[in-house]
Amino acid sequence: MAGDVNRFLGDSPARTVLKLMVVSLIVGFLMAIFGVDPWDLVYSIRNFILDIWHSGFAALGKIGDYLILGATIVIPIFIILRIFSYRR
């Protein structure tokens, strides 16, 4: 069971938590430098959903375009990374 957790997390739970804390600290520092508040992100997502609702779902076509465009890069990179990590 512990091996499955380690394999899923990519490392031991303690080291994974430590890595996430370090990355969170760095991201938080950068967000503070640029004046970004987490609530700004929440409100932006809320406003985005409301804009989609009010525009009669016409924006969904753009989201689908962005999704496909991003997937053409993300999916192959994900597959390549999984193949290389599977060999270890």
Low-confidence stretches: none
Mean pLDDT: 82
Reported for the largest beta sheet, the result is: none
Helix/strand order: HHHH
Instruction: Report the principal-axis shape.
Output: extended
Number of strands: 0
Structural class, from secondary structure content? mainly alpha
Q: Which radius of gyration do the C-alpha atoms yield? A: 19 Å
Number of helices, where a helix is a run of at least 4 consecutive DSSP H or I residues: 4
Please explain how this structure is put together.
The protein is mostly helical and 88 residues long. The protein has 4 helices and no strands. It is extended, with a radius of gyration of 19 Å. The two termini are 20 Å apart. The mean pLDDT is 82.
List its salient traits.
88 residues, mainly alpha, 4 helices, 83% helix, extended
Brief overview:
The protein is an all-alpha fold and 88 residues long. The protein has four helices and no strands.
Topology:
Layout: H1 2-9, H2 13-33, H3 38-54, H4 60-86
